[in-house]
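Our preliminary data section would be incomplete without showing what the modeling component actually yields. Below, a chain of 385 amino acids is followed by its predicted structure, encoded as tokens that our downstream tools consume directly.
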Amino acid sequence: MLKPLIKWPGGKTNELDRFLSLIPSYDRYIEPFVGGGALYFYLNPPKALINDTSRDLMDFYRLVKEQDPEFKRILNLYCSSFERLKEQCAVRYQDILALYRLYEEAQKQELDIRRLGLNEGLVRRIGEDPEIMTDLVTDGDEFLEQLRRMTEDKILRTIQNGKKKPLTDRDLKNNLMTGFTSGFYMYFRNVFNEIAAGELAVTLPYRIANFYFIREYCYGAMFRYNHKGEFNIPYGGISYNGKDFGAKIRTIFGEDVARLLGRTEIYCEDFESFLDKLTLTERDFLFLDPPYDTDFSEYEGKDFDKNDQKRLADFLKRTRARFLLVLKNTGFIYGLYENCGFRILSFDNRYLYNMRSRNDRSAQHLLITNIPEEEIPWKRENFLI
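Predicted structure:
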């Protein structure tokens, strides 16, 4: 069974058991809002068309489909340089710990710690390792500055946390090493924003490898942008230090993934433009998991508003294809579909992450379909109504 290749907001991996009994036989599998594609990868369909408005996401799928060698090389370089950083932090941990003690003592003496530059030499000795500062790094000084800034910030926060509750040796080590790994991430997050702003020209494989690394290591696979339009999700934290990025790369370039994407057409368009160009029949199956009707339905800085929800409902009212639609249950959404002759059921779902506290953790979700009940009976024990 294949699993999603990339972490994406609103992924449905944990809800697949809700959907599997509701899927009809079909000739073509079509997903207009594919995201991470949990159902697509699980079903491994014989013929598929996938679409999303995220250019980075769909370029990622295209490069994987092509098994692009330069893309693979750059991903492996991210993996090896990140692993080398962790190795060097382990080798030099006594130096890092001594630095921590210096900061502790300086703070006791009420010195202006951030002007001391205590960690510059250590950061340089680690960061200038040629297996860490590889050709991925476009600005060596900025790379070292991010390592310095984040290690210092982590040291200071760890000192404060230690005052509240003594840390075990293991916890202390994990915290201090995370200063370096978060600095590595923050440098490449800045690169991601520079590329998006058109301030840094790079190749397509470089851009998408950078995108994939950031998606894997940002906290909770979230999307969030500041008022300048910059992606600003922080590093995932201590638990992310142990990620097996190499295993992800091996999966991406595995034969099973290559075969599936080899029989898949890939698009990057507005959902309606994508669907309108297709000649749909009752032998087509649409799985639709659009952004939800909430105050925060913005992924990659792009809104999916009530007008878009109306466009989607209007399309589904006229399509011949069989479809299964998953949406959060709001009054607006229910009103769009309640008198359309569709079958509507709901279920409870809990999210692992609360995006700006605007998605209810215990919100009901709707399953809406035009598949007749005699064709696909519901397993009613899975649902609330």
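Residues 13-55+254-382 form a domain with the Rossmann fold fold (CATH 3.40.50.150). The first helix runs from residue 16 to 19. Preliminary results of this kind motivate Aim 1 of the renewal.
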